[in-house]
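User: I'm putting together a teaching handout on how multi-component assemblies are represented. Below are the sequence lines for each component of a complex, exactly as they appear in our records. Could you produce the 3D structure of the whole assembly as structure tokens, so the students can see both representations side by side? Please keep the chain order the same as the input.
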Amino acid sequence: MTDTPEPDEIVEEPVAEAPEPEPEPEPEMVRADNVHKSFGSLEVLKGIDLVVKPGEVCCVLGPSGSGKSTFLRCINHLEKINAGRIFVDGDLVGYRERGGKLHELSEKDVARQRRSIGMVFQRFNLFPHMTVLDNVMEAPCRVKRESKSEVRERATALLDRVGLSSKIGNYPGQLSGGQQQRVAIARALAMRPKLMLFDEPTSALDPELVGEVLDVMKGLAQDGMTMIVVTHEIGFAREVGDNLIFMDGGVVVEQGAPRDVIGNPQHERTKAFLSKVL
Amino acid sequence: MSEQSTTERARPEAIKAVPVRHPVRWVSIAVIAVLVAMFVHLLLTNDNFRWSYIFVSYEEGKRGVMFTGPVLEGLRGTILLTITSMAIGIGLGTVLAVMRLSPNRILSSVAFVYTWFFRAVPRLILAILFGNLNILWSRIGFGLPFDEQIGKLFGIDNFNGQFYSIRAVDLLAGFVAGMLALGLSEAAYMAEIVRAGLQSVDSGQSEAAVALGMSRFQVLRRIVLPQAMRVIVPPTGNETIAMVKDTSLVAFVPVAGELWFQLNNISARTFVVFPVLVAAVIWYLIICTILMIGQYYVERHYGKGYGASARAKQRLRNIQVEQGGKITTTGETP
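Assistant: Of course. Below is the structure of the complete assembly, with chains in the same order as your input.
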């Protein structure tokens, strides 16, 4: 809960710049300024601020209904925010600011923004009518119009990386949940995103399948991928996270280095939540 | 290990039990056999069927009523009419379904009113109505609306704002009228079928596709529609088969190049009723049977990745792997 640069014992800090004496504008992958979101009269997000630097892994914890998934969906404009600003890699998400006025982006422009943001869903959402390989190849071929042979090579390599090279020709319905989620991760990575959003990626899995998905995510983090992970896996947050935010009731209650927040929570709500989860 | 101890135990004798008897089954088989025999007997021995009239020759020097020239022409017309009106129905129906699900209120209510009207009017009346639509206009074309009235406003009599026009009787009669009546009414039913199909696809699918940066059209074309097809195809098969039969309604438009019109014509000319009806039954049976076979293959195509059979095959393979990797078919071992 201090503003000092991160302690030394965290080894992996791949892209983040070394702390400098004078505060230069640091590169930010995600910046959320006072984000508000309502569904009808129900206010789900009540002013979220967040900065995620390139290469950082930010874990979002909180009880269900705290707005963490909604916040994640706002980052790639699956939900429209009602107030505030979200920037991804310096670009305002979903809008263009011109002459002090906001203009909604066209569908095409929003789609362009989404290309560089990968998302992994709780319920995998693989395309059931396509084989595993086609699932991974679909977006690069159709959206980016890359050459098929090149994409196939990359997709095969990605599937190998998530340990599924033997399942290339299978349909998602023939895979276990853990395997499906790993395909979903490969599918998102095939677009070469600069940011990955994970929406409770292990919540729909049988307990013995959680590990294989978390291992893939760990590998990604070590390779320097910027990630925002909504999760209930405290162990993962502690081990892999560079930053942890705890949300409740649509606000960020507490944030800081994961081991500080988990080991020594300051707020009552954080304490209450952690005591139930741990 | 415990596995070994189980394999070493002697396998007990396979069960050989006397199966349960089903006397009712035997009785019903006997009853059905008798009924079938009676039916075959009727077909073969009753001279009123006049099989030679149907198959061999219905008049001096003419082929059987099923294969005579005008009837084959009519058959061609019926098939053509089925294909064109179903094409209109499926195409327009898909557009209407997408409109109906659009967040734009105007589009969705237009689609609603369309389906309301065409589902509520009987096809037979619609067919006759379309055959008589040319009463409304002498010419049909593209041009300025209210051209004469606007012309009068500026003091010009008989101002003609038409760019291109054609005589209504030429356009809206016979085949075209029948095709439009059937196609437009079919679109209303297809719209509902397609809508049900689109709504059956989990919203997570389009969300995942959108998150990958796909455009709305790409999501529809590549992700949602192919999955909706699984739900859309079986009732569409039904509709197609129903359409084959409903083409006989356009005999009232009237459309001459149509199977039932031609058969009916011969019946009226030769005063032979029953064999002609039997010939019609046989032709419709043949067309519909071919369509049903086609439907089976289309369904199988769109069932990819879902079918219980695909999953069962995979499970079988997995079991084989577990049981020591004896794989004969694909040789794929993990």
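A couple of points students might notice: Residues 207-222 of chain A form the longest helix (16 residues). Chain A touches chain B through 35 residues (CB under 8 Å).
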